[in-house]
Amino acid sequence: MVARTILTYDGMQGARDDGLRRELLGGDLYVSPAPSPSHQGVVSELIFALVAYARERGGRVFPAPIDVAFSEVDAVQPDVISRPDADRTFCGSGMRPSKSREAN
């Protein structure tokens, strides 16, 4: 039987910056190539719309690369995140649930 290695978000931080997207799902590492130009065009339009919305109603918009860590073994790097509230705190290069929310 082969032992399974579980990677953590903190353990992933040492990876070199080579332009590849690294995400953790259940402690398993998934690596994706850089997105295509057409994908980036769609993401740009989405960012434009979200920024306009945030300016009218409040909030902030962050394009990739940015990590969103849900737990030590679950961290993703979405194309864009919109943050309408203050329930999440920035930690290092990304976002994690705030300590007060984790305690609940």
Explain this structure.
The chain has 104 residues and is of the alpha+beta class. It has one domain: Alpha-Beta Complex (tt1808, chain A), CATH 3.90.1570. Helix content is 29%, strand content 33%. The protein has a four-stranded mixed β-sheet with strand order 5-4-8-7. The chain has a two-stranded antiparallel ribbon with strand order 1-2. A hairpin with a 2-residue loop joins strand 4 and strand 5. The chain is elongated and about 55 Å long. The C terminus is likely disordered.
Descriptors for this entry?
104 residues; alpha+beta; tt1808, chain A; 4-stranded mixed sheet; two-stranded antiparallel sheet; 3 helices; 8 strands; elongated; disordered C terminus
- Report Rg: 16 Å
Task: Tell me, briefly, the overall form.
Answer: elongated
Share of helical residues? 25-40%
What amount of the residues lies in strands?
25-35%
- By DSSP, the count of extended strands is 8
CATH architectural label: Alpha-Beta Complex
Q: In CATH, what is the class? A: Alpha Beta
What is the count of structural domains? 1
Figure out the total of helices.
3
Strand order of the largest sheet: 5-4-8-7
Oligomer: single chain
**pLDDT average, as an integer?**
81
Secondary-structure-based class equals alpha+beta
CATH fold name: tt1808, chain A
* Low-confidence segments: 98-104
Largest sheet: 4 strands, mixed
Could you spell the SSE succession in H and E letters?
HEEHEEEEEEH
